[in-house]
Amino acid sequence: MVKKKFDASLKYPFSKLASTEKNVTIDPKSDKSVMIKVKMPAEEFDGLIIGGINIRLNQADDTKKESEGGMQIKNIIRYNFGVVLVENETVIVPEMKMNKAFPSQVMGVNTVKANLSNTEPGIIDGLEVVAKVTKKGSKEVLYEATKQGLRMAPNSTFDFGVSMDNKAYQAGDYTMSVVAKAENPDKEWSWNKDFTVDRETAQKLNAKAADLEKDYSMYWIVGGIVIGILLVVVILCIIFYRKKKKKAEAERRKRQAQKRKRKKAPTNRPNKKRPIAGEISTKRSEKNKK
User: Fold this and answer.
1) What are the angstrom distances between the C-alpha of 59 and each of 69, 74, 117?
2) What's the whole-model pTM score?
3) Per-residue three-class SS string for 58-79
4) What tens digit of pLDDT does each residue of 63-105 get?
5) In the chain, which residue ranges form alpha helices assigned H by DSSP?
6) Where is the composition biased (Basic and acidic residues) (predicted)?
7) 209 touches 108 (CB < 8 A)
8) Domain segments of the chain: what residues?
9) What is the homologous superfamily of the domain 96-215 according to CATH?
């Protein structure tokens, strides 16, 4: 059994003031009066001290038989009777505060909790609580919850949960904003508390969560990065191929231009004038005369 944690403002827990027999035996078809001793505080107190008397059947033997029979369900019936202690008629105005926000779970569902306290010895009736969770420094609401018709006992504390709807915890810094409105007394409180989900806590809670919705965002991110790298490689290859092709084309044109220049350039050898047939015969006759 989980030990009840009292609020720090509670001076006189009823369980510390009252005492009785732990086990009482009652015969079949009979009744029995049980005395409960209450030791009042030495000093007069204002407001209310609220407690309860819990009665349940001792089912140790039955539970053993059920375990031997292989049954998985154990039902325990309890009877609770409320007790209110008051010494004067001083009117107490309740006051609320938010102690902390923290990551947790409720029945296998990831749930962010706000620990709230009623720090005065008066009852808060008609309480409405609205809570929102955001990334630290962001206004985008990730998760939210609203509950109405709540009631807080004097000097008590409870955890108000905001379900994450089967989402997984992501490590990081967050802010929980809470607004509480009461009908009696007619008051309103608001708080903002930062909290951190470290990687170890996120992994631990996610491993225990039931029906956790799988987050494929990382796969999309990795896939996007891979596709981006491939696109960059393809673009670089295209650019490299085009530059290489352009360079080869320029070199080819340069070689063709050089060939054309060689064909058009004049030679340095003198052109010898070939004699005409008539001139040859004249020159020969002149030589004969000599």
Assistant:
1) 15, 10, 35
2) 0.68
3) CCHHHHHHHHHCCCCCCCCCEE
4) 545 555 555 677 788 889 999 999 999 999 999 999 999 999 9
5) 14-17, 60-68, 199-208, 217-264, 277-289
6) 281-290
7) yes
8) 14-86, 96-215
9) Immunoglobulins (2.60.40.10)
